[in-house]
Amino acid sequence: MAGDTVPEAPRAPTIIPVLVILALGIVLPFLLSSGFHLRLAMLVWIYAILCMGFNLLYGYSGQISLGSPAFYAIGGYAFAMLQTMLGMGPVSAFVGSLLLVAVLSLLIGLPLLRLRTHYLAMATLAFMLVQNGVANRWINFTGGQSGVAVPPLEWGGEPIGRMGIYFVILALAAAVFILHDFLIRSHLGRAMQAIRDDETAAQALGVKVTRMKLAVLVLSAVMAAIAGVCFGITSLRVDPSLSEFHVLVSLLTIVVVGGLGTRFGPILGSIIVVLLPQLLHEFGELETVVYGLFILLFLLFLPHGLSGLLERRDWRLRRTGKKPAPAVARDLKEELP
Amino acid sequence: MTATDPLLRLDNVTRRFGGLVAVNDISFQIHSGEVKGLIGPNGAGKSTTFDLVTGVRPPSSGEVYFRGQRVTRQPAHTRSPMGMARTFQIVRLFSGLSVLENVQLGLHPKFPDGIVRSLLRLGSLSGQERASRERAMDLLAFVGLADRAGHAIDQLTLGQLRLVDIARALAADPVLLMLDEPAAGLNDAETDNLGEMLVRLRKQGLSMLLVEHDIDFIMKACDSIVVMDHGVKIADGTPAEVARNPDVIAAYFGRRAVHAAA
Amino acid sequence: MLMKLSYLLLAGLTNGSVYGLIGLSLSVIYGSSRVINFAQGEFVMLGAMSAVLFMVTLALPWPLAMLAMIAVVIVAALALDYGVYRPLTKRKAAPLTIMIGTLAAAIVVYGLAFLLWGPDQKFVPPVLSLTPVRIGFLVTNTQQVSLIVIFLAFLIATWYLLYRTRFGLTVRATGVNPKVALLMGIRSERIVQFSFIFSATISGVAGMMVGPLLGGHVGMGLLLTVKGFMAAILGGLGSPFAAAAGGIAIGMMEALMAGYGTSLYAEPAIFVLILLVLIVRPYGLLGDYEAERR
Prior knowledge:
The complex is a heterotrimer of chains A (about 325), B (about 260) and C (about 290).
Chain A lengths: L1 H4 L10 H16 L3 H26 L7 H17 L5 H23 L4 H21 L1 H4 L5 E2 L4 E2 L2 E2 L2 H24 L1 H11 L1 H6 L4 H27 L1 E2 L6 H14 L6 H16 L6 H15 L3 H6 L3 H7 L5 H10 L2
Chain B lengths: L7 E10 L2 E11 L4 E5 L6 H9 L6 E6 L2 E2 L8 H4 L1 E3 L12 H7 L9 H6 L1 H21 L15 H13 L5 E5 L7 H16 L3 E5 L3 H7 L2 E6 L2 E6 L1 H6 L1 H16 L1
Parallel strand pairs in B: 3-8, 3-9, 6-7, 7-8
Antiparallel strand pairs in B: 1-2, 1-4, 4-5, 9-10
Chain C lengths: L1 H32 L6 H18 L4 H29 L4 H23 L15 E3 L2 E3 L1 H22 L2 H11 L1 H6 L4 H27 L5 H16 L4 H21 L5 H15 L8 H5 L1
Antiparallel strand pairs in C: 1-2
């Protein structure tokens, strides 16, 4: 048996937890009593999609791009405007908006990915501010503050109900989630982590660093655009608030709370970030303070986020111990089911 | 490539940094199965030469041929698939990955390239991943670290880290292994262990280029030695020839090393 | 024609001084700790709002109010040091993680300020006078002029401190390599603490001085942080003076664009310019030499 000589590889755990989460997602709407709760559930998936892209780019590949909210907004706007201005159907508008964002992110990524750490962060933040500025100001084209209406999704001439919309979003989230999971469990995830830890060494081992970074940037932008489209079909309107600073703060909170560079971090974080404000209403005026403290406490005491609690790999477990104790750890593992 | 062609050939390679000539008109060859040493005092240009061969930076002039192909201006990531692997002087393992995964990364060029291509070959990927894990385990066993496979990088000693680095380089099945000061910072026992391992690799017919400070180590390990000083090649020959070379003695060895070699 | 230009230049110089002071503050902290402090603009906000508290609510004379304000921002800086920077560095957090930590701190500061001062724009009393003063054909006021003077004064003070004192040498050494600095007997924690306090004071004073011109409200910090960043990135994070110059450049561009183009697009246009600069010069106009070597 291979298991005797090869330790259970952290990179090839089963896909079952992903399917379990998606199954819960299918059951969920039938357990929710109100439309408001269903809307919260949709928001969780939308943020999860957005953050999975960010997780691949920053958490796994180490490239901090603060431009995600811009691609999120552009995806939503393009989906709306391709329908209202060019008369496209929703499916072709969806494909068109993803293509547009892919091309745009490629054009931006080519020059910008040469930048490192803070410079990359600031340049991509500048991109977000430009996008937001244009969305706010070019009123004739973008509708300014009030944004653009998104035509409701229809099926056989009838608008699709809330429940239907939820399942459309769940299907898109499932696709993104499975792709996200495939990438981080495969050799590509390993290569991304290698780029994050040491570009030169990764290059020497035959990893095409530049191409890989660009591919992940485009992929994360496309995921953000998918999230933007989902936002559009739930809210029936996209406006400049999609790329405002608070979206970026939510994004960062989600990855910190969920766990940066972890499999389930984006989903766990999204659940918390969507539900937290509902709970924080209790604090009244203290809400903002508590929110900030909450992020700080996570950074300090749960640096790997909620995922860090759930998916400690065996080697990470050993890292927390002062002395390596391989024999004991192996014995322990064999006893576990 | 014919049988007589060298594995690696440097033709009049020069590298300037601004006004400084770090490597000046260097030529040498490594033949198949040969273990070559590259030595010289601090600032002789060894590391820069190493970078030029591995593609970290291109030379200002001159050419580098590997397996008969000109690779002078090919970027670093093209070396590994061609059969050239390297280790790093300051160990550069990936701290976010386990020991085993670090070695598996050495097998990266064997996997399908890019996201789309990987998705197209989804069926064969899990088998390939399992095979790569087994291969990586074999390599860890070869360097004597099989029991550390699941560990985090920061739990290993420097000597062990170097061995992981070598195992990672070997994963790509190189024909030429480039070692950048592999014995630096190791204690005597670790250095001996490393030396024995290089002997085993040499017996398997692996060619190597060894940049090293430790003279005794390099005298024992190498078939031939290139000596550099101030960016210029001052000697190229067997350890015994090099040790007798008056220029080398003047530039580098001093009396003690001559006795040691004799 | 010439008058309009000189007006615009004066306005640009005034706003640019504020951006420059924030850029300078950010660069001082970055220089010693490799951390970008997302809460820097909150110090400016605290400066402006403390002026309201001490000069209006408590009716203190301005020198006392300024001392009290400096005490407030120093307390905030120490809280940032002990509550965010030290615990995170102790846990070996990456610089970008610490940056997220300072962002969380900024949210906390904003939340607390909101409790104290509410959401409304407040009139910030001038330390000096807002009465118009004529210099040639330029109409200005002492508050505006003093802001530019303070900018220059802090610039000189920073230069003197960093390049003309032994202490400055240790500050610079810590930024280059904290471990080596530690071996040399320099306690980098002290240096970082000093840089937090120093930069908080600069930003607080800038806030107190610019408050009467911009108006003060608790949400003003964020945009100032962003502008300060852009200033530091445009000039080059590695040098406080490059960062300060970046601030002046941004202030000038903003004023000129508002004056001759459309004020509507002044802000996005500046961010586009910064993007272009970074594409051509990845480490800023004047360069972060330390980063370039890596």
